[in-house]
Amino acid sequence: MKEVYPGIFLVREKGSFGNFKPTENIYVIAGEDGLVFDAGFGNKKAIKHFLKELEQIENVFNQKNTPFSITRIIPSHCHPDHFSGLQQIRKKKGVKILLTERMVEIIKDKKSFMQSFNADGYTDYLIVKKGVKRKFRDFILKLFTSFFYKLIYGLSYINDPDEIIEEDSIIEINGESWNLSYTPGHAIDHVSLYNEEKGILLSGDNILKSITTWLGPPNCDIKEYIGSLDYIHSLPNLKVILPAHGELVENPKERIEEILKHRENRTKLVIKIVQEHSKIGVSPSDIIQIIYPNEKRMLREIARGWICLTLKMLEQSNHVRRIEEDNIIKFFPSDKI
Ligand SMILES: [Zn+2]
Q1: Across the chain, how many H-helices and E-strands are there?
Q2: Rounded Cα gap, residues 156 and 244, in angstroms
Q3: Which has fewest Cβ within 10 Å: 14, 42, 144, 266?
């Protein structure tokens, strides 16, 4: 563990399988009435590591003769790398699990969790063709939610949180006020935690230092994501961002502007490609081929996420229109562009 700010400790959980199970940051706002932000993995090894680190934090307090008690835990959002450890940490440390209404809806049981992957017609973007491919995708999803997530992430569902918390509310931690804010975009239930006096934001997956956060259907939304970034950018006295993956962001405003610019450029690029194919139209796969001609298949499939979401956004704002023929969705410029 590392004290990243007086009284705020970072516990890092090792990942594996590359992007599939990323290294995770858990933050402990330590003191007499402390809180843990994000729960990480729920595997035996991960929990053992977390408890050991927590013990070390307690030792720091004991040496200074200051009271230490961690009373609550809250995830930034309900992706498996952020909530899987909740159940075990509660069991071992007796902390209360705080969840928002939206979080409970997602992780209360396996059925709800699976449903959260199947939101709307835009999922079509992901599968391109219906029929067998769709069935195959559903099969893979089922395998992940019932087997791999459990095995690799130590996932367990929560249908009995100790407290339901409002998405925009104030949490008192060690006698200080922290603002919980609803910041969707990367995930439909994403929240961030801010202390204005310290200028510290716990941002979950919204803002990462060196990689762009994953965006893809069905539960991400680029417009909402941009709205959340604008909101965070406007926070008074923002000094440092503690993200859920990677290193601290010590130039938060600059980094947010960089991400916003990146998104803007990506949107312009998709518009340009659609315009250049105004007669024959382009499918999401065509766009992937144009932007990533030489990338590995896995990377191209990951990129499908932001491309589909960008098309969704442009379709909703009437910049592009879709035509579906022979199970292939093609996009054409609308009169607006
Ligand atoms: Zn996430």
Answers
A1: 11, 14
A2: 20
A3: 14
Distance 79 CA to ligand 1 centre (A): 5
For residue 186, report the distance from its CA to the centre of ligand 1, in Å: 7
Cβ proximity of 265 and 212 under 8 Å: no
Using the mean position of ligand 1's atoms as its centre, give its distance from the Cα of residue 156 in Å.
16
Peptide bond before residue 22 is cis, with ω within 30 degrees of 0: no
Task: State in Å: Cα 257 to ligand 1 middle.
Answer: 21
CA of 77 to the centre of ligand 1 (A): 7
CATH number for the domain running over 2-109+154-250 = 3.60.15.10
Q: How would you write 299-323 as a 3-class SS string?
A: HHHHHHHHHHHHHHHHHHCCCEEEE
d(CA 116, CA 145): 11
Amino acid found at 270: V
| C-alpha pair distances (Å), 73 with each of 31, 171, 172, 194 | 14, 12, 13, 15
Dist. CA 317 → ligand 1 center (Å): 26
Residue 245 alpha carbon to ligand 1 centre in Å: 10
Return the structure tokens found at 149. Answer: 């997530």
User: Residues 176-235: pLDDT tens digits?
Assistant: 999 999 999 999 999 999 999 999 999 999 999 987 888 887 788 999 999 999 999 999
Asked if 137 and 127 touch (Cβ cutoff 8 Å), the reply is yes
Ligand 1 mean position to 204 CA, how many Å? 8
To 10 degrees, the CA torsion angle through 226, 232, 235, 239?
-130
305-329, pLDDT tens digit by residue? 899 899 989 998 999 998 887 777 8
Please give the single-letter amino acid code of residue 309: L
The domain 269-333 is classified under which CATH number: 1.10.10.10, 3.40.50.2000, 3.10.580.10, 3.40.30.10?
A: 1.10.10.10
| Ligand 1 geometric centre to CA of 41 (Å) | 13
Q: How close is the Cα of 326 to the center of ligand 1, in Å? A: 34
